[in-house]
Amino acid sequence: MDCGRSPPSPGLSLRIPGFAFAGVPVLGAFALELRGGETTALLGPSGSGKSTLLRMVAGLLPAPAGARIAAADGGPVAGRLAWMAQQDLLLPWLDLLGNVMLGARLRGEAPDRARALRLIEAVGLAGRERARPAELSGGMRQRAALARTLMEDRPFVLMDEPFSAVDAPTRHRLQGLAARLLAGRTVLLVTHDPLEAMRLAHRVLVLRGSPAVPVEVPVPAAAPPREAHDVAVLTAQGALLESLAEATAEAA
Ligand SMILES: Nc1ncnc2c1ncn2[C@@H]1O[C@H](COP(=O)(O)OP(=O)(O)OP(=O)(O)O)[C@@H](O)[C@H]1O
């Protein structure tokens, strides 16, 4: 199934004047353009504000005064976002098909059952439509979560450590699947995994400093998805790891 978007999704423009929780600064002031149809990976030390930024973009946290989060096509951001988290957030009492169609049901719309079935097939879960989440492995549940994210067919996709809870080979397969199915969307991917960032992202940012601001790091010349064993990917992964170590030392 071709889930890519053509033409690609619009870009997202973020201008954050800084952000604090109860007076404790978390994010510094910065402006960031997420290019349309591209995946931007965001890394940084634990507590540097990655999820905070993601939640702000998603509208789950009130943006501070003076912040601007805008779509490059002038359209709204709210209502055009899909979210995929580390926890699959599947409802245990619904089967796989019910979970994939949940968004439409919650909005009181008639779900597109044929599309849901095609997406379930695309993530390799055909034949498991009637299975409850408890009957699926962790990797299968994340694939189900990916199908549910794609079911929303939103131009903007926010992913918060989407594959961190699964084993390395499963993560590797899920990354390939996500790259194929999310092609053309504007994706902001929070991850702790430098290899994941270098495989999937057009641009890689590290939150550095205190309060933290995103700093761009070099990526291999080839367009993503990139092979994990590619020398350029491994070299970039090493450099990213060093940048993360420096960021962690700065934050300590
Ligand atoms: N609701 C909240 N109220 C107060 N402080 C918060 C709240 N949410 C997060 N924080 C604080 O804001 C800072 C940034 O948290 P955030 O979850 O964005 O970090 P992160 O980079 O995503 O971390 P991790 O990699 O561990 O998930 C942390 O110091 C955290 O304790």
Automatic annotation (TrEMBL):
GO terms for molecular function: ATP binding. Residues 12-234 form the ABC transporter domain. It comes from the Bacteria. Pfam families: ABC_tran (PF00005). SUPFAM superfamilies: P-loop containing nucleoside triphosphate hydrolases. Gene3D superfamilies: P-loop containing nucleotide triphosphate hydrolases. Keywords: ATP-binding, Nucleotide-binding, Transport. Coiled coil: none annotated. This is ATP-binding cassette domain-containing protein. It comes from Caldovatus aquaticus.
